[in-house]
Amino acid sequence: MSKSIADQITLAQQAANGDAIARQDVNRLIHPIIRYQTARFCKRFCFENRYRFACTLANPIGASAVDALLCEWGNASYGWMLNDLSGSKRLLKYQAKFDSSLHNYIYSIANSLAFYERWKDWRFDGNVHVPTYIRQLHANAATVFHGLRTQDAIELIAQKLMCSELEVQQLSREIIKILTKKKRLHLLNPPTTVSLTELNAGHTNELTTDDGYGEMDVAVYDESPEQRDDKAKLHTAWSKLSPVEQYVLEALIIEQQDAEDVLHALSQLNITIKQGVTAQKTNRQQLYYFRRKTIVKLNELMKNG
User: Fold this and answer.
1) Do 213 and 220 touch, CB atoms closer than 8 A?
2) Distance between CA 123 and CA 79 in Å, rounded?
3) Do residues 175 and 137 lie in contact, with contact meaning Cβ atoms separated by under 8 Å?
4) What pLDDT does 226 receive?
5) Virtual torsion, Cα 54, 57, 60, 66, nearest 10 deg
6) Cα 6 to chain center, whole Å?
7) CA 151 – CA 153 distance, rounded (Å)
8) Alpha carbon distance 275, 223 (integer Å)
9) Of the candidates 87, 118, 86, which has an alpha carbon nearest to the alpha carbon of residue 103?
């Protein structure tokens, strides 16, 4: 075993035992990994935050108003990753197998599917109910449902299930079809962003890190009365849209599905969006016009209350 690897094992053990200088060295070592993953995950799950808050990432996402409040999720994600990747138990497990460096050890964990799933559980509180009629579709239906809800790529879902991408695509269409038919498509809405101080609400067990410490308190924002009013208006206006209007907006804007997939789902359900034109004859131009018309309608409903 080379001296450099032996030194890294010693460094990990010293940092795990509370040595301040060793801890600083470890933090500097893994900073680029955490910075990259924080930007990657935040971008994937930013949703409307990029328009409402000022991004705190090194390369900010979107363009917010000059007086916008700072977004809490970038710094909070960095803190969570730092705790997960450099906790005492994590560092003590480092044994330099096959002469793997401490950097490569942390890098492999940060790029694992398990790490990604842990971060999502923390970010979205991990409490999502999958309807029985979805579970009954297929043994993998619940996993695909969660993947659709968090907007995971088809390839990632297929990798997790160890099946083909075609199987995942077919099951995804079946889930969308049955939810549309039951007027429950809103169940696939992206997870709601909540304040980090409320993550433990309703739970008796405190969330802990690898070190066994409770979750650190972080700064949060307070919504202005105007923002709360806008959200209430949007919720009310959204409920006044028809299930088909909701589906089209969700599929094309929120989920960013391809127009062909949306047209296929409408055709399978025999749902028309233009009078006098069958679902099977509906084209992209008509679909995009329906989307624009629905957005205008939603805007009017918000204005008129």
Assistant:
1) no
2) 12
3) yes
4) 64
5) 20
6) 38
7) 6
8) 42
9) 86
- Which contacts of 59-62 are long-range, i.e. CB under 8 A and separated by 24 or more positions? none
The string of DSSP letters for 97-160 reads GGG--HHHHHHHHHTSHHHHHHHHHHHHTT--PPPHHHHTT-TTHHHHHHHHHTT--HHHHHHH
Neighbours of 95 (CB within 10 A): 10
Backbone angles phi, psi at 240, to 5 degrees: -90, -10
Q: What sign results for the dihedral spanned by CA atoms 205, 207, 209, 213?
A: negative
Q: Tokens standing for 224?
A: 């202005």
Could you give the CA distance from residue 83 to residue 246 in angstroms, rounded to a whole number? Answer: 40
- Give the whole-angstrom CA distance, residue 142 versus residue 129: 9
Residue from 213, 185, 222 nearest 69 by CA? 222
Q: Residue 127 corresponds to which tokens in the numbers above?
A: 């409490």
In degrees, rounded to 5, the angle at the alpha carbon of residue 20 between the alpha carbons of residues 17 and 25 is 100
Token readout for 102 is 């401490």
pLDDT digits (tens, 9 = 90+) for 60-97: 877 667 778 888 888 889 999 999 999 898 999 998 88
Is pTM beyond 0.70? Reply is no
Under DSSP, is residue 250 helix (H, G, I), strand (E, B) or coil?
Answer: helix
